[in-house]
Amino acid sequence: MSNTTPTLGPQPAPPPAGRTLRRALPTLIAVAVLLPLLAVGILKVQRRVEQTDSAGFTVADQEATEADVAHRRVEVKGVLLADGSSWSSTSARGSVLVVNFWASWCGPCRVEQPQLNRVARAYRGRGVRFIGINVRDSKGAAQSYAEEFTIPYPSLFDQAALSAVRLQAFALPSTFILDRDGVVAYRLTGRTTLAILSARLDKLLSQDRRWVG
């Protein structure tokens, strides 16, 4: 038996390096373009998740929409941002109460604040009161925000967001309207406006300040 290794036929010569590079060039260009875009996308998602996780809220950056809500009597209570004294919504019974959840780091909150100020001043003599609730914030940042916008009504400082849990406010900004008996009439999620808020207040005022389903 012969141990002679069989001779193979002539092998094809490898393609020239220049031709290989030309073939791979479109793929290399696509990778070079897509990688930075992918990195930016990942970074944006990461920042969004970090903001949501650290704050515990979704930022509702759109015009306010009315959301379903249980029309139940609630008590909103806590300590005032200005001086740390206790406050309860029971002191506002007999008046319509607008409850607005906000934070200094919330962009849509900053956009809607001038509108809230206008409505608060316009309805002050019509049996409507306002209370803000600052959540997931530092006291210094919250106080600076209140001073910057010259907010004409008090706010509670609720770093732990306990009031948000009780009212089921999981987005910022969120605005609740309580009737004269402390019953939740409306829940608005997103940036409220003069028109949106005034329409709900006018309806409640026309119903003797009581929610009518």
What does this structure look like?
The structure is a single chain. The protein is of the alpha/beta class and 213 residues long. It is 39% helix and 20% strand. The chain has helices spanning 17-55, 107-122, 139-148, 162-167, 194-206, and strands spanning 58-59, 65-67, 77-79, 86-88, 96-102, 128-135, 155-158, 171-172, 174-178, 184-189. The strands form three sheets. The chain has a six-stranded mixed sheet. The protein has a two-stranded parallel ribbon with strand order 1-8. It has a two-stranded antiparallel ribbon with strand order 3-4. Strand 9 (174-178) and strand 10 form a beta hairpin. The chain is globular, with a radius of gyration of 30 Å.
What are the SSEs and their pairings?
Blueprint: H1 17-55, E1 58-59, E2 65-67, E3 77-79, E4 86-88, E5 96-102, H2 107-122, E6 128-135, H3 139-148, E7 155-158, H4 162-167, E8 171-172, E9 174-178, E10 184-189, H5 194-206
Parallel strand pairs: 1-8, 5-6, 6-7
Antiparallel strand pairs: 2-10, 3-4, 5-9, 9-10
- The string of secondary-structure elements, in order, is HEEEEEHEHEHEEEH
- Low-pLDDT segments: 33-54
From the alpha-carbon coordinates, what is the Rg to the nearest angstrom? 30 Å
| Spatial ordering of strands, largest sheet | 2-10-9-5-6-7
Helix percent reads: 25-40%
Shape: globular
* Amino-to-carboxy terminus distance: 102 Å
